[in-house]
Design goal:
Length: 128
């Protein structure tokens, strides 16, 4: 009986693998739908089920996640899904932290160009 159950689970997993898009296909669709929050949200939920064994696929997903995090039009609601994917791609904490620091620096850099001296002083006082 246990053997039959294991066989059914294995067949279901194989069927799921056949139904799920590959990482390049998912990234292609998500890239085309960057302006559509709902579609991106759903695609990144599907991404949780995709196998990330392929290095090329991981890099595609990491690049797309980074671009979406840097996009000024992306909804804040998708950030946890993007962060979850980056955690899957970079399981070593130091690599993930390094990437997130780079993203934060890229977000802050353009903002600093538009700060008035008064706003810069207020920001400096907040961080001290």
């Amino acid at each position: 009986r246990l053997r039959a159950s294991v066989g059914r689970v294995a067949r279901a997993a194989d069927e799921l693998d056949e139904l799920l898009p590959t990482v390049p296909v998912l990234c292609h669709f998500a890239n085309k739908q960057q302006e559509n929050f709902y579609v991106c949200h759903e695609l990144f939920q599907v991404a949780d089920m995709i196998d990330l064994a392929d290095e090329g696929g991981r890099q595609l997903l990491a690049t797309l996640s980074r671009e979406l995090l840097l996009s000024p039009t992306m909804s804040d609601e998708i950030v946890p899904l993007l962060a979850a994917q980056l955690r899957r791609i970079y399981p070593q904490e130091d690599s993930l932290v390094q990437l997130l620091l780079e993203i934060i620096a890229e977000v802050r850099e353009p903002l600093e160009l538009f700060l008035t001296p008064e706003a810069e002083e207020a920001l400096r006082l907040q961080t001290d």
